[in-house]
Predict the structure.
Amino acid sequence: MSLFKHFFPKPLFTQLTVTSNNGFHLRPVAQFASLAKSFPAQITAATKHKTVDAKAVNALLSLSLEKGDSFTLSIKGKKAEEALQSLLVLFETLMQNDKEVKKIEKTAYIYEGSVTEGEIISQGVAIAPAYRYSSEEVQHKNDLNFQEAHAQSIDELESLYASRKEKENAMIYLAQRELLSSLGEISQSLVEFEALIEEESRKLAGTRLDAKRSDYRDILQRVKKHLGLEVKVTFPDTPFILLCNDLLPSEIDMLLETKVLGVILKETSVNSHSAILLRAAGICSLIADTKTFKQNEILILDTHSGVIVQTPSSDDLQKANVRSAQDAAQNLHSAKKRFESATTQKGKVINVFANVGDVNSAKIAKEEGAEGIGLLRSEFLFKEVKPSLETQQNAYKEIFDLFSNITVRTLDVGGDKALPYIDIPSEANPFLGIRGVRLFQTHPQLLEEQLHAIFLAAGEKSIKIMFPMVSTVEEFTETKAFALKVAEKYQLDISHILFGIMVEVPSVLFLLEKFNEVVDFYSIGTNDLTQYLFAIERTHSSLKADALSPVLFSAIETILNKASKPVSICGELAGNKDAIERLLALGLETLSVSPKSIAQTKEEIRHV
Ligand code: PEP
Ligand code: MG
C-alpha cells in the first residue's frame, strides 16, 4: 500500500434507494444517523442537489427522500469499510421493516345530520361536546442555561425511550433524542435553537414528512420547559372530543390522563407520530378539517365510517349509540371471556399465565383473567434499597395468596439493571457479564435472604422457584444445593417446592439431556434468548433482531423436543398474536404474558 493511499484514503461510495412507501422518515433516519455516529469516519449522503452530514438527523431529513429516491452514501476515514457494511445492512432492514400503515376501509355512514368526512387514524365511536385545543405559555423560575436545558431534555427523552423500549412506539423518543442532539449541538442559545427549528421545519413543509414538524415543535417545547417556559395545555375534566391542528407526542401522554373520547386532527398524517400514539392508546381519531366545528357543540365522531356529524338528529344519536354499544360489546366479549379458559378449536386447553413485576401488577393480572403467574420478576423489591427479610416476605406472601400457580424468579440484575447498593465492577459487555444467577457467586447473602423470604412466604404452598441466566448445569445444581442449605439452616421444610430455570442462554439447548436429570421445569425467556442467539443487545438503539425469526421457533422446537420436564414460555413472544398459532403448533401448553395481553391472548388461542 502506498504511503499516499494510507494518508489520503479514497472515500467509499454506494448508492441507496428508498423502497419503503413511507419514504426515509424520521424514525429510520434517526436509527441510521445514530449508527453512523458510532463510526469515526466522515459519512455523507448526497442527492443531485445537496450533500449532507449523514450523522445529523435534521440534515438527512432535509433531503426529503421519498419512495424511489436514491442517494449516494460516501464514507471516508477510519473503519470506512466496516461503517459501509453496517449502514448498508441497517438501511436494508429499515426499508424492509418499515411497514406502511394500512388504510382502514370505511363502512357506509348512516347519519342525517351535516357530515364531514376524514381519514381514519383509529376506529371507534364517540359522542361528546367539541373542545378546541388551547394552550398558554407560563414562565417559571429557572436557573438552567441553554446547554443544561438541552442536556436535561436529552436525558428525559432517553429515559422515555428506555422505559418503553419493548414497544414499537419507543422509536419516536429515540428519533426525537437524535433530532434534539443534532440540532442542539449547533446552537448556542435558545434564540439560535428556535431559529434553527423554524428553518428546519419550514424545509419539511409540504413534503411527505410534513407531519414530522410536530416533532420539531415537541423538542423545542421540551427544551423551553427546562428553561422555565412551559407550554401549559388545558383539557376539560368532563368527556370531550378534541379538535386540534396536530398534537405533540408529549401532549398525547397528557391527554391519556383526561376523559377524552375522541380526537380530530387537521394537520397530520396516518403515519405521523401523533397518529401512532393515538392508535396505540386506542383513542378513536380522525384527520379532518375542524374549522366548522364550534366549541361545546355536540358531535358524533364515527371513525368506522370516517365521519363527524354536526347537529345530529335524535335518530343519528341513537344510531351512534348502537354502534358504540357494539364496540363496547366486542371489547366486553373478549374481556368477559377473560376468566374462561382458553381452548383451541381442537379442544386443547392452554394455560394463560401472567408476567408480573410487583404486587400491583399481580392484582391487575388477576382482574385481567390470568390463571397463574408464570414469571414473577422479583427485581421490584431491590431497586433502591436492600429490602429487609420482612419486606420481602410480606410482598411475596401478598402475591402468592392471589393465585394457586406461582413461579417466582430469583433476583435478575446485572446487564442493564444495576443495584445502587451493590458493587459490580464495570464491565465492557455487561449483558455478557455478572447477570442473574451469576451475581450470587459474589453476593450469596442476597440469595440467602431472598430464598429465606420466599420459603417463609410460601409456607405449605407448592410454588416454583426459577433461576435466571443459567448457562451450565453446575450453575443450577450449585444454586439449588445452596437453596437446600438455606432451608436446612432455618429448619424449613421445602420438599413441596419445585426448582427450574429460565431457558434464555443458548448453551442450555445443548445441555438439555443433563438438565432433564436435575430441574423440575423450564420457562423459555425469548427476550434474552433472542438477544443471545443473534448477538444483538436487546436495548440496542438501532439494531433489532427479528422477533419472529424462524431461528427462534427452531430453538423453541429443539427445547420442546429435548426437554422431558414441563416447558412454558414467558418472553414477549408468548403474547405476540403473530406467534401464538406457531407456538401452540410446536406443543407449548402454557403461555405467560403481560397482564394487559391476557384477554387478547386467550381470544387468539380460541381461534387456533
Ligand atoms: C426473557 O428474557 O425472555 C424474560 C422473560 O426475562 P426478562 O425480560 O425479565 O429478562
Ligand atoms: Mg431474561
Observations:
- The chain has a mean pLDDT of 89.
- The first strand starts at residue 12 and ends at 17.
- The chain has four domains: 12-96, 114-134+235-333, 136-232, 338-607.
